[in-house]
Amino acid sequence: MSIRIDQKLCLSCGRCALVCPGGLIAQDEEKKAFVKYPKDCWGCAACLKECQSGAIRYFLGADLGGKGAYMYTRDEPDFLHWFIVCNGKSHKLTINKRESNKY
Ligand code: SF4
Ligand code: SF4
């Protein structure tokens, strides 16, 4: 698994850099995010969940989604939408953030 950041979609908010537990994400002079140490990423997905623009892609292992499969998110105040793209198809999973910790 690995992540990639599309700087064209990046809003320069810095949220991903703040939450990465390994301090692996930095921002350039335009505040666009980039992964400083890609090999050290352990795939916790914290940055992915924070990104409101869908700029971060989380590539799945071939055994999970097939070659080139990836996930990204869209964040709203009450909902987090997960998109899983594999074999040219996009699948959406929506989590109600207010309800997600109730059981
Ligand atoms: S959270 Fe997303 S939009 Fe914000 S700096 Fe990181 S990649 Fe860019
Ligand atoms: S997936 Fe986790 S470890 Fe990897 S860059 Fe994002 S926040 Fe950091």
Which key terms come to mind for this protein?
binds iron/sulfur cluster; 7 strands; 103 residues; 3 helices; two-stranded antiparallel sheet; mainly beta; Alpha-Beta Plaits; five-stranded antiparallel sheet; 14% helix
Structural account:
The structure is a single chain. A five-stranded antiparallel sheet has the order 1-4-5-6-7. A two-stranded antiparallel ribbon has the order 2-3. Helix content is 14%, strand content 35%. The termini are far apart. The protein has a single domain, classed as Alpha-Beta Plaits (2-Layer Sandwich). It is built from three helices and seven strands, in the order βαββαβαβββ. By secondary structure, it is mainly β. It has helices at residues 15-19, 46-50, 62-65, and strands spanning 2-5, 25-27, 33-35, 56-59, 70-75, 79-86, 89-96. The site of one iron/sulfur cluster has 14 residues, from α1. One iron/sulfur cluster is lined by residues 3, 20, 22, 24-25, 35, 41-47.
